Structures are given as C-alpha cells and as structure tokens.
C-alpha cells in the first residue's frame, strides 16, 4: 500500500498521536464535505489574489468557484494583504526574498512518500516563512502545539522547504503562520532548524514507520474529529463510554471534581455519539437493518416552487412581496468598500461582550473576572 495516500501533513496531528489510525482511514471511503469543497474554493481565490498582487499573469477563478461569496472575497483579500505585507517586511532585509504560492514540497526523507502543498512560502537569507490559510470556522487552529512545539502540518512543510531551498538561502530559522480570518486568528510560531530536524528524526520518522505498517497503539482524543474511522473505532468508543461510570445524578449531588472530570469529556462524548448516529443513518440507507431502529422521513418546511413567480403574482395583486432591513456589517462593508465603510460608519460600529462560555483552560482567551461575570448576569 502506498503510504503517501494516508500519511499526509494535514492529518499528521492525528497519526502522530494514533499511528494505526492511518491505515484504518486509508481503507475508508473519502467523502469530501461541503466545508472541504468550500475551503478548496477559498484557497484557489487566495492563490489568485496573491499572484495578481505580485504582478504575475494569472487567470481569475471566481466564475468557476461554486461557493464564492462576499465573505470569501473579503477573507481572501485579507490573506493576500497579509502575505504581501510579510513579503514587504522580508524584502527590507533581503532583496532576494521570494514568494511561492501553492508550492509542492517533499519531506520523504522522514516519511516515505511524504509530500504536501504549502499555501505560501516566503524565502529569505536565513529564514523561511510558511503561511497556511485556514478557511474553517469550527476549530481554532494554532501554529504551535504542546506535543511538538510547532504545528505538525506546518513542520512537515518546513522540512520540505529545507530539502528544496536550504542550500540556496542557508536557512536556520523556520517561521510558521496560521491565518484563519473567520476566527480572527493569526497564530505565529518560530522554530530553529536544529529543533525541527531533531523532531523529524526523533518523533516524525519513527512514528511514520509505525503508521505505515499499521502498528503502534490506538489513542482517542480531540484528534479523532476528522478521522474517517471515528464512528466505528473501538478505542474511541471505550474512551467515551468511560463517562458511563457516573450514575448521572443531579449536578448538585456530584462533587466538583466529578463535574470537572465530566466536563473534560462531555464535548467529545457528544461528538462521538453524533458521529455514530450519522454513520448508522448512512449504513441504514445502504440497506443495513438495525434491530431497534428504522429510517423515516424527517420534518420539512413549506417552500415556494419559484420565488420569482411568487413575487410577480403578489406584485400583480397590488402588494409588496419584499421586506426591507439594514444590511449586516459584512455585507455593508462589501457594498461600501473598507475605506468608505470606516469613513462613514467607523464610529457607529461596536463589538458587545460575548456570552460567558465555559471552555478548557488550554483555550487562549483570558478568563473572566468575577466582576465581569456579575455584570453579564445583570
């Protein structure tokens, strides 16, 4: 079995923790989600805008993008501006700096068949910067990690950069950047070449060998979210069913430490249960007969057969079929343009405090003080 099919940089955060999951995922059918397709379109637009800003001859892909909208345009423009700004700063100290977009890199010295495509690479004397665009909204992505120092996907890309360009630019520092506009997240992590190569030899290479052979230990955790085997993995089931040791009495009858323990697992437990239900539905639709369950038609809402025809009929009857409301901030900024928006409405926009949310202490946001919590309640 070819290892490049499943030992990908984008999945490295999972197979580095749970090596045998790689072979399980390779056997599963790859069903590209709407979110993944949306991300692919966003990346195409990003690449075009950067190349265009650099004065290169490129074709506008917009008319061929199925998920294109103003939000995607704004996010891609912000990313392109960020890249060009980073490039400009680099050129101040290195006139020979170079930008590469959607650059394929090869790190197969450590991972057999290991290749990937870096969204953007900025090369200069001594430093290589790898910038990764994340269009996803659901999960905040960081350029660093507790286990590896840096983000393993970007670290794999950086290894490929060293293989291709270290002899030209004498790279000693790797700068890794996550640009995630829909979460207002720009995360940066810097690592020395020595640190990266040590990680590659001590962690990446031996773990990749285990993963390629389907060996090592299964381990469940947050990394399971995008695993193709997440619904049927026995280790994940065991991990989540540990919560069943509680009798689920009323919360005020549980000790604080027990509630803390439950909170540590409840999000993953909920996600696992949802994954199993979705998997079972798909299997049932394919003909699998579950003893206690059946497939029925869900609830639906009424819809117009043609909005245009409805509007015309209501207009002809002497009524106004449309409601009017103020454009939202994103749509208004798109209508006016960034400069005009700030000029006209900059002083009329504010960001109210968000609703208090209980999250893990590993979350980067500052904890609310007691006074702030009281204010929210009031």
Task: Supply database-style keywords.
378 residues, five-stranded mixed sheet, 12% strand, Lambda Exonuclease, Chain A
What report would you give on this structure?
The chain is α+β, with helices and mostly antiparallel strands and 378 residues long. The chain has 2 domains: 3-213, Lambda Exonuclease, Chain A; 230-285, no CATH class. It is 44% helix and 12% strand. The chain has 12 helices and 7 strands. Strand 6 and strand 7 form a beta hairpin. The longest helix is centred in the last third of the chain and has 30 residues, at 256-285. 27% of the residues are buried. The mean pLDDT is 87.
How do the helices and strands line up, and which of them pair or pack?
Blueprint (H helix, E strand, L loop, with lengths): L11 H4 L5 H7 L6 H20 L16 H24 L4 E9 L8 E10 L2 E7 L10 E2 L3 E2 L1 H18 L3 E8 L4 E8 H21 L20 H8 L14 H30 L21 H10 L12 H8 L1 H8 L24 H8 L1
Parallel strand pairs: 3-6
Antiparallel strand pairs: 1-2, 2-3, 4-5, 6-7
Helix pairs in contact: 3-4, 5-6, 7-8, 10-11
């Amino acid at each position: 079995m070819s290892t490049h099919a499943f030992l990908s940089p984008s999945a490295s955060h999972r197979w580095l923790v749970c090596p045998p999951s790689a072979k399980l995922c390779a056997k599963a059918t790859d069903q590209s989600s709407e979110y993944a397709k949306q991300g692919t379109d966003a990346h195409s637009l990003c690449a075009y805008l950067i190349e265009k800003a650099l004065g290169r001859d490129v074709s506008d892909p917009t008319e061929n993008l199925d998920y294109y909208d103003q939000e995607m345009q704004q996010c891609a423009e912000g990313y392109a501006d960020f890249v060009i700004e980073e490039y400009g700063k680099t050129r101040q100290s290195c006139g020979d700096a170079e930008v590469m977009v959607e650059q394929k890199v090869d790190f197969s010295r450590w991972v057999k068949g290991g290749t990937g495509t870096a969204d953007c690479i900025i090369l200069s004397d001594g430093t290589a910067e790898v910038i990764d665009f994340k269009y996803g909204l659901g999960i905040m992505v960081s350029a660093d990690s507790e286990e590896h120092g840096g983000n393993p996907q970007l670290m794999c890309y950086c290894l490929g950069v060293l293989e291709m360009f270290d002899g030209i630019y004498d790279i000693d520092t790797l700068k890794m950047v996550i640009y995630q506009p829909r979460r207002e997240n720009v995360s940066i992590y810097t690592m020395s070449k020595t640190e990266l190569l040590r990680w590659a030899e001590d962690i990446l290479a031996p773990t990749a060998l285990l993963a390629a052979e389907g060996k090592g230990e299964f381990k469940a955790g947050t990394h399971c979210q995008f695993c193709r085997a997440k619904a049927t993995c026995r280790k994940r089931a065991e991990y989540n069913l540990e919560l069943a040791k509680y009798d689920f009495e009323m919360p005020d009858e549980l000790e604080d430490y027990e509630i803390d323990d439950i909170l540590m697992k409840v999000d993953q437990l909920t996600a696992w249960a949802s994954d199993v239900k979705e998997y079972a539905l798909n299997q049932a639709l394919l003909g699998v007969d579950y003893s206690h369950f059946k497939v029925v038609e869900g609830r639906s809402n009424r819809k117009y057969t043609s909005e245009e025809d409805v509007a015309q009929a209501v207009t002809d009857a002497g009524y106004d079929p449309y409601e009017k409301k103020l454009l939202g901030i994103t749509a208004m900024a798109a209508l006016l343009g960034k400069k005009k928006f700030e000029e006209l409405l900059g002083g009329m926009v504010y960001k109210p405090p968000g609703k208090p949310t209980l999250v893990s202490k590993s979350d980067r946001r500052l904890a609310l003080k007691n006074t702030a919590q009281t204010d929210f309640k009031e």
